[in-house]
Amino acid sequence: MQGVMHGEGTDPLAGRLPVTVITGFLGSGKTTLLSRLLRHPDMNRAAVIINEFGEVGLDHELVQASSERMTLLSNGCLCCTVRTDLQETLRELFVKRRSGEVIDFDRVFVETTGLADPAPILHSLQTDGLLGAQYRLNGVVTLVDAVNGMASLDAMPEAAKQAALADRLIVTKTDIASAGEAERLEARLRAMNPYAVVSRSVDGALDPELLREITPSSAKSLAREPNRWLAGAALQAGEDGSYLRDRIAARGAGGAHDAAIHSFCLWFDQPFTWDTLAASLEVLTSLRGPDLLRVKGIVDVQGEAGPVAIHGVQHVFHPPVKLEAWHGAERRSRIVFIVRNIPRESVEALFAAVGMLR
């Protein structure tokens, strides 16, 4: 595990370029959504990175001028094709931005291939020193086709993992699916990942505000709305986790792959020490890292004036972000887990072993 130390910097998120990962199974409409999104006037300084093996290229109506790898779109956006690896592409883009060779882009969208696991992209933003200094993860947006989504979730573990890692779930093709199909799919997605916002998109239409600040852009903005970052609607509905248990128990339409994926939130009455927090997460990630799909938390740490925000994907944790003050009267730590084949009781037992749960 990397990153769970004694906090870094006063506001490590501020000033970094947000990277939004757009994923989804084959035919889910990722390129269609991007093409529509880039037509919005607020998106005229975006850089888009697409895999060269993508299903189709961006809409030709957007193309103005291009080089071998980089295309300037008619609305001012920059489109770049991955020829080597994503890390190299992001580094090259930032160097060219700083030298004035490309537009002064203010955000990055990464479109993955339909079979891609988004976790390595999230790891790259943490483990690459240069990338971590210049970019920050804004969030994962997963598109799911209302016509074929149920079958993809049944047959393909990659599709289930894409949904489980999402901050935003976008159900597409609802105009050609039956109302019942779309509703059953949305219920299944909410059961798999209660912390993601679920929306619909027809022919790529989507309000850009939904993607603007998925993860807060600074420690100050995170401190103002910590529960929004943790999907506060779910947490506020039942501190003991009853709300989540009810949703998970109601997943009757679930399939074999997502049946193994579930979510829960642990609350802690006493504050952690830095050593206890680091040791707990290190043991958890070393034992079950591949199945620890996503972890988010607002944690009370002894000696800190405000809470500490933690965020991990599998075995990699981002550096914790210290917040200046608590938001509201609730000061208990709460940590959200999205896991695969890990019983809640096993995680509780680990924290009980270090004296954090009774």
Summed up:
By secondary structure, the protein is of the alpha/beta class. It has helices at residues 30-38, 86-99, 119-127, 129-134, 149-155, 157-164, 179-192, 209-212, 219-224, 226-229, 232-236, 242-249, 256-259, 274-288, 344-353; strands at residues 17-24, 46-51, 63-66, 70-73, 78-82, 107-111, 135-145, 168-172, 197-201, 261-268, 294-299, 308-313, 316-317, 321-322, 333-340.
Describe this structure in words.
The chain has 358 residues and is an alpha/beta fold. It has helices at residues 30-38, 86-99, 119-127, 129-134, 149-155, 157-164, 179-192, 209-212, 219-224, 226-229, 232-236, 242-249, 256-259, 274-288, 344-353; strands spanning 17-24, 46-51, 63-66, 70-73, 78-82, 107-111, 135-145, 168-172, 197-201, 261-268, 294-299, 308-313, 316-317, 321-322, 333-340. The strands form 2 sheets. The protein has a 9-stranded mixed beta sheet with strand order 3-4-5-2-6-1-7-8-9, with helices on both faces. Strands 10, 11, 12, 13, 14 and 15 form a 6-stranded antiparallel beta sheet that branches. Helix 5 (149-155) packs across helix 6. The longest helix is centred in the last third of the chain and has 15 residues, at 274-288. The two termini are 25 Å apart. 44% of the residues are buried.
